[in-house]
Each structure stands twice: as structure tokens, then as C-alpha cells.
Write a structure and sequence with these properties.
This protein is of the alpha/beta class. It has one domain (about 5-160, about 195-240, about 275-295): Class I glutamine amidotransferase (GATase) domain (Rossmann fold, 3-Layer(aba) Sandwich). The protein is built from ten helices and twelve strands. Strands 1, 2, 3, 4, 5, 6, 7, 8, 9, 10, 11 and 12 form a twelve-stranded mixed sheet that branches. The radius of gyration is 18 Å and the shape is globular. The two termini are about 25 Å apart.
């Protein structure tokens, strides 16, 4: 089944070139099924790239999915045109009366700030509190995962001595979790961050389960409250070229931080390949099926 997105969203052309099945509102209303309503709070600066990353994965399941994009009202994006935001995004005040089957809260390149120093922190905590009663399952990515762990469970972060960037091997810590059903015993996933969470605090918290981790990159996938909150510290949604683009941006800032295990022979002049795509699709499919579709009510009260 397809993913339903606004007719003029730029990501549509990218997805159709990749043979991802998409439909617009005109065709969707002819189908007599109950679609899943997914809300995406996009905190990344280059919002159109993040839209394509996430829609690619949400659109490759047997379920029809309606997508709504959410922006912060307390922070003005400098990297995405106001026209794009006005056309495709809404604010929390406009949707807080609604119920959503699933939600994604993305990362943001602000991890070196204390959470309370982020200008939209109060708005974000209001949204995260709202998800407890109005969203069946919320998926938090990278900084969004650290924010959720801090706000919901008081698990704090710390600055790493060196940026964690690259593609790392991960293993399964909890074989019984449906989110990882079908995963290989070991698999690759990208990371790109300057902070990490305190593993001691995570292990001491009985509510949060560590599902998968990496010896090099640390805790990766966590779940709480039977999957109502899912936290992922890395970026399975990334394209093959995303870390290379971040590497070049770092170079422009005078930072030569080569992503580990990413470029062929660690040579940044060579094009990297995507070695995590299948597990990215599997994780999002499992999330939509087991934690959203199987758990959400057909009609919200």
C-alpha cells in the first residue's frame, strides 16, 4: 500500500524515481480503508532532505499512511524556505486536539547545548507530554532520542571527547522484542553525534529496555512502556551520501573528522555505499506494524 503525502511536496518526485509507491489526497479518498495517521516533528535544518529520508521508509509497507508535518512555533527555521513550511507544515496549536497513531521526532544539530538552553525546549516538552495520551507510539531519533530519555526518564547526556560519526556494527541485546524481528544477529547502522547517554543511568532505569547496542557507538535502540516510546540514537534513515555531506560541512568549519568504516578504504574521494538500507526498512516496517497498526484503536475516543 502507498504512503499519502501532499500533492506538491518536493520529496514526491524523489520517491517516485526510487519506485516508492506514493499517492496524493485525490486518489486516497477513493479508498475505503482506515489509514494510519503519522505526525512528523521535523527539527532538522534541511527539512526537505529529512522528509525524503523518512517518507522513503514509511512508504514501503503494506499499510496506507497519512503524513502530517509539524514545525516548532517557538523557533524559526533558517535553512528551509518559509513558503515550504507554510505550505506543508502545521504547528502544535493547530493539531493538539487530534489523535495520531504514530509520531516521529527527529534529531537536531544542537546536542552540545543543555536541553533547557534550546529555545524551543518548553514547546518540545509540551509536545512530548501530549504524546502520552494522544499518540499510540512515538519514535525518537538521535537528539530527539536523547531529549526523550532526559525528559521522560531523567537519563542525561554527556559530551564525547570526539564526534561519533561513521557506520558501526551493532548486536541485539533483547531477542524477544518485536521491533527487531527479522534483524540479523549483527548489522550496520550510521551514527553522527557529539554526545552520548550515561549507560549506568540507562541500566538503572527499570522502565527503559536496551534493545540493541554497539561496542564502538554505544546504546542504539531503546524502548519504554511497551513501545509507546522508542528511542534510536543513530540514523538508519540516512542516505548513502549523508555522512559524506556532513563530513564536507565539518571540513568547511575547519574540522577534519573522518566518519569511521564509511568511505571505501577510508578514502573520502571514493563514493560510500549504503550497507544498512534493509535493516532501516525492516525497523520502520516493524514499528508501523507491531507498535502502531496492531496497537492503535480503529476509532480514537
Amino acid at each position: 500500500m502507498p504512503i499519502k503525502i501532499p500533492k506538491l511536496l518536493p520529496a514526491r518526485e524523489i520517491l517516485e524515481r526510487e519506485n516508492i509507491f506514493v499517492m496524493d489526497e485525490d486518489r486516497a479518498i477513493t479508498q475505503d480503508i482506515r489509514p494510519l495517521n503519522i505526525l512528523i516533528l521535523n527539527l532538522m535544518p534541511e527539512k526537505e532532505k529529512t522528509e525524503a529520508h523518512l517518507l522513503r521508509l514509511l512508504g514501503n509497507t503494506p499499510l496506507q499512511v497519512n503524513i502530517s508535518f509539524l514545525k516548532t512555533a517557538s523557533h524559526e527555521s533558517k535553512n528551509t524556505s518559509s513558503l515550504h513550511l507554510d505550505q506543508f507544515y502545521t504547528t502544535f496549536a493547530e493539531i493538539k486536539h487530534r489523535k495520531f497513531d504514530g509520531m516521529i521526532i527527529t534529531g537536531a544539530p544542537i546536542e552540545l547545548l543543555a536541553f533547557e538552553e534550546v529555545d524551543y525546549w518548553k514547546e518540545l516538552t509540551n509536545i512530548m507530554d501530549w504524546t502520552k495520551d494522544n499518540v499510540t507510539s512515538t519514535l525518537h531519533i538521535c537528539w530527539g532520542a536523547q531529549a526523550a530519555l532526559y525528559h521522560h526518564f531523567n537519563i542525561t547526556k554527556y559530551e564525547l571527547p570526539k564526534k561519533c560519526t561513521g557506520v558501526f556494527w551493532h548486536h541485539i541485546d533483547d531477542q524477544s522484542e518485536k521491533l527487531l524481528r527479522g534483524f540479523d544477529d549483527v548489522y550496520l547502522a550510521p551514527h553522527s553525534r557529539n554526545t552520548d547517554i550515561f549507560i549506568e543511568q540507562l541500566q538503572a532505569n527499570p522502565t527503559v529496555k536496551l534493545l540493541s547496542s554497539s561496542e564502538e557507538a554505544g546504546p542504539f535502540i531503546m524502548s519504554a512502556n511497551n513501545g509507546k516510546q522508542i528511542m534510536i540514537t543513530g540514523h538508519l534513515e540516512y542516505d548513502a551520501s549523508t555522512l559524506a555531506e556532513e563530513y564536507r560541512r565539518d571540513l568547511e568549519k575547519g574540522l577534519n573528522i573522518l566518519p569511521l568504516h564509511y568511505f571505501p578504504n577510508d578514502d573520502p574521494s571514493k563514493s560510500p555505499t549504503n550497507k544498512w538500507r534493509s535493516h532501516a526498512h525492516l525497523l520502520f516496517s516493524n514499528w508501523l506494524n507491531y507498535y502502531v497498526y496492531q496497537e492503535t484503536p480503529f476509532e480514537w475516543d
